[in-house]
Amino acid sequence: MKCERCPKQATMHITEVLGDRYEEVHVCEDCANKYLAEPAKKKGAAKKKGAPATADGPDEAPPAVGPACPACGLSYLEFRNQGRFGCAHDYDAFKAELLPLLESIHGDVRHVGKAPRRVPRAQGAQVELTALRRKLQQLVTEENYEEAARVRDRIKELENG
Amino acid sequence: MNLDKLLPNLGEWLRGTGPESDVVLSTRIRLARNLADLPFGTRATAAHKGEVVARAKEAVAKAGAAHKLEYLDIPNIAALDRQFLVERQLISRELAGGLDGPRGVAFDPTETASVMVNEEDHLRLQVLRSGFALDDAWRDIDRLDDALEQRLSYAFHAQFGYLTACPTNVGTGMRASVMLHLPALGLTKQIDKVFRALQKINLAVRGLHGEGSRAFGDLYQISNHVTLGKSEPKILNEIREVIVTILDYERKARTALLKERRQAEHDRAARAIGTLGSATMITTEETMELLSAVRLGIHLHLLDGIPVTAVNQLFIHTQSAHLQKLAGHALDGEERNAARAKYLKTKLRELNSHRQ
């Protein structure tokens, strides 16, 4: 498949969630980086990791619906409105949006303290790493490179721990 | 479980003993815990909640001998009994009335440990201790948590710790609160200053029944706000340091009161007893305010022969649901005020006859 924006081969396949419909974008790596750096141009467009909703226009866009949790279906907007998570997976689904929120509530974004005895702390990270590596492989097989990049970053983070 | 058998007991939080009990009524620690594979409260169906209850009941039943917890289904019990459990600090107002679907509470006969099921989080563990006892309370709840965890798979995240329904609880999931009686700081108008200082260091101040409740009878709960990024012992230490300072302020204010206006304070305490013993209608709020004056009078050694435990008993028994259980039937607002006055009159007369 050709990149939609230049003659190169499309290697990134991005699905934009626009309210109740989807838009697919097929681009090469360079154009993908540019695309992701662009501010959300349409109302309700999914906020991308690393692309904060910059208010460069005079009319500031209403808050994005944001990502939705694949496990319970809760959207980030719903979470912000009611202030409650729907399930344990929301913390990963909304991680990018959550970090500044947790920072402002707690002044920190990393747990220190008790961990379940069944999963000793170091082992806890190991368990997550193992699961993430498996997930990464699967995502690459599925050509879901955007999510794969996110998983790869998390693995790096854990490895540097 | 027959709740009526709890009625004569004071419950742990009003036992009136424990360290620093002249100022600190009780110490409470709660832990928020969720099961990894089930949706949280707002996304849970009745079937999900039923599953949480089933698993929690089994884990609680097998949690070991240290805490023999008995489970009570909240939807199955009368509104009055729910209110009764709220007054005994065993369940929250939300669990009693604000939520629906399968939910409940397990607690031990001494009322020191309880586990709410399907409150905001799947599990809310709580340990109550009389007096200033953060370390003891932590040791107890840590053990209870370990025992439950052997049979339940908690939602735990390598970065964020224990995952909770509300982001304000994530991390340790721990809220430690200390219930203080601060009448002298109130009388000498220093209380606001103390609380402004507390808010600056991220500790929360609440009334008797937690968030949003007014501080009646000079009772205040001080609790930690931050749950992420600090270990449990560190959070407990920060609270401890602050409580020690407040204790010192309150005691200094009491000493100053004795020194500067002993007669006036004696008069205030004596009049409080007089009103409690002769009113024919009295609200919970007025009762709490007057009992606060009596309690202070006892600690200043201005009143003889009234044990603090008696004040605590009057305090708990004059709460609405307790009063109605003592009466054996429901009472409306006016009837309650009359019944409360009658109860106080009888009890104070009994106390008086013991003294002579």
Mind sketching the topology for me?
The complex is a heterodimer of chains A (161) and B (356).
Chain A: E1 12-18, E2 21-27, H1 29-37, H2 76-82, H3 90-93, H4 95-106, H5 121-141, H6 145-160
Antiparallel strand pairs in A: 1-2
Helix pairs in contact in A: 5-6
Chain B: E1 24-33, H1 46-61, E2 70-73, H2 79-87, H3 93-98, E3 104-107, E4 113-117, E5 123-130, H4 134-149, E6 156-157, E7 161-162, E8 174-181, H5 183-187, H6 191-200, E9 203-206, E10 219-224, H7 232-278, H8 284-299, H9 308-317, H10 320-327, H11 333-355
Antiparallel strand pairs in B: 1-5, 1-8, 2-3, 3-4, 4-5, 6-7, 8-10, 9-10
Overall average pLDDT of chain B: 90
Helix coverage percent of chain B: 40-55%
Structural class of chain B: alpha+beta
Main sheet attributes: strand count, strand direction, barrel closure of chain B:
8 strands, antiparallel
Going across the major beta sheet of chain B, what is the strand order?
A: 2-3-4-5-1-8-10-9
> Strands across the major sheet of chain A, in which order?
1-2
Q: Helix share of residues of chain A?
A: 40-55%
Radius of gyration of chain B: 21 Å
* Tally of distinct domains of chain A: 3
Question: Can you write the helix and strand succession of chain A as a string?
Answer: EEHHHHHH
Task: Give the biggest sheet of chain A.
Answer: 2 strands, antiparallel
Hey, which two chains have the biggest interface? A-B, 35 and 41 residues
Low-confidence runs of at least 5 consecutive residues of chain A:
40-61
Number of E-state strands of chain A: 2
Oligomer type: heterodimer
